[in-house]
């Protein structure tokens, strides 16, 4: 299939990936690095794959300037498993963790944490259907960690900067939908987790960046694969890892570097989001659902105010080669997911469709 036949994919995840990464992967499925064996067929113990895995880690470290006292490794189970695995490792019935409740994913993380220890919900934006990032946060006396969702994929809100973390605690973030969309100061965190399928690659692999002393503090009573130290200390090779996903993640890291690194992709993401939000503000038919100071640069949620018209617009866009725009059922309307790999031309196409639709049906 020619890349010219590709359409603009606004899917929230799995999501659009850089075309050069897809092309290189297509070749590597038949023969990776001239070995005569495809990437999905190599032993994970082979020299070829171990070099790829080490290369993925090295590329990740370079991109985000990750210091040596942090582990970088790859696990399975998605962010949803991490909702439970984090408290399972670091929380006990005599400890408290503080959670910032900014959407459906945060709520799921809170639910899991309650199984293992005390949870203080330090703030919540549920009163207005999660359309903003709360400014006032009320921490407990001595939380073990503070957990937040850096970008709320479903509601289209995003922390502009990471929240303050009380002394003695460490930050844990679910960065699944904005990881490496902008520079990140890893040293502010105890643990970062991100499912790959929004900004980093295909579904099935989850990136973990974790301070070594935090990993060491984890429970030793858990089944082997649920202790973070297992994959951290084995370089992600304790068991068979998602080899294809790790390969593609490596290519995505290299692609980001080729784009100029995190600051450069952040600039492009900012420009795309600014353009789209400006068009929404200028429209008399469409309006954004998130508060202006909380808007996400990865997922823009918007509505016409009429569910039938929303559905009509989604269909209108589909006819013009744009897919994945239907909003999540908890917000309704439309959601344009515009991750790192989303092309500028797709933003222009959406804005043009908004104008034409408004002229025809507004
Ligand atoms: C998509 C997403 C998840 C869920 O990821 P799974 O891989 O399906 O478990 C969790 N958190 C955030 C912020 C997400 O965007």
TrEMBL record:
InterPro entries (alphabetical): Aminotrans_V_dom (IPR000192), Aminotrans_V_PyrdxlP_BS (IPR020578), Pser_aminoTfrase (IPR022278), PyrdxlP-dep_Trfase (IPR015424), PyrdxlP-dep_Trfase_major (IPR015421), PyrdxlP-dep_Trfase_small (IPR015422)
Q: Which NCBIfam families match?
A: PRK05355.1
Q: Which residues form the signal peptide?
A: none
Could you tell me what the cofactor note in this record states?
Binds 1 pyridoxal phosphate per subunit.
Kindly indicate whether the keyword Cytoplasm belongs to this entry.
Answer: yes
Question: What's a GO cellular component annotated to this UniProt protein?
Answer: cytoplasm
Where does this one sit in the cell?
Answer: Cytoplasm
Biological source species: Stratiformator vulcanicus
User: What does the UniProt record say this protein does?
Assistant: Catalyzes the reversible conversion of 3-phosphohydroxypyruvate to phosphoserine and of 3-hydroxy-2-oxo-4-phosphonooxybutanoate to phosphohydroxythreonine.
Domain of life where this protein originates = Bacteria
N6-(pyridoxal phosphate)lysine occurs at 198
Record gene name: serC
Cofactors demanded by this protein: pyridoxal 5'-phosphate
Q: Which UniProt keywords apply?
A: Amino-acid biosynthesis, Aminotransferase, Cytoplasm, Pyridoxal phosphate, Pyridoxine biosynthesis, Serine biosynthesis, Transferase
Q: Which reaction does it catalyse?
A: O-phospho-L-serine + 2-oxoglutarate = 3-phosphooxypyruvate + L-glutamate; 4-(phosphooxy)-L-threonine + 2-oxoglutarate = (R)-3-hydroxy-2-oxo-4-phosphooxybutanoate + L-glutamate
Name a Pfam family for this protein.
Aminotran_5
Q: Which GO terms describe its biological process?
A: L-serine biosynthetic process; pyridoxine biosynthetic process
Tell me which residues bind pyridoxal 5'-phosphate: 79-80, 105, 153, 174, 197, 239-240
Write out the residues that bind L-glutamate: 45
Every Aminotransferase class V domain range: 7-350
Quaternary structure, from the entry? Homodimer.
User: Which pathway is this protein assigned to?
Assistant: Cofactor biosynthesis; pyridoxine 5'-phosphate biosynthesis; pyridoxine 5'-phosphate from D-erythrose 4-phosphate: step 3/5; Amino-acid biosynthesis; L-serine biosynthesis; L-serine from 3-phospho-D-glycerate: step 2/3
Descriptive protein name: Phosphoserine aminotransferase
Q: Is Glycosyltransferase among this UniProt entry's keywords?
A: no
Q: Which GO terms describe its molecular function?
A: O-phospho-L-serine:2-oxoglutarate aminotransferase activity; pyridoxal phosphate binding
E.C. code: 2.6.1.52
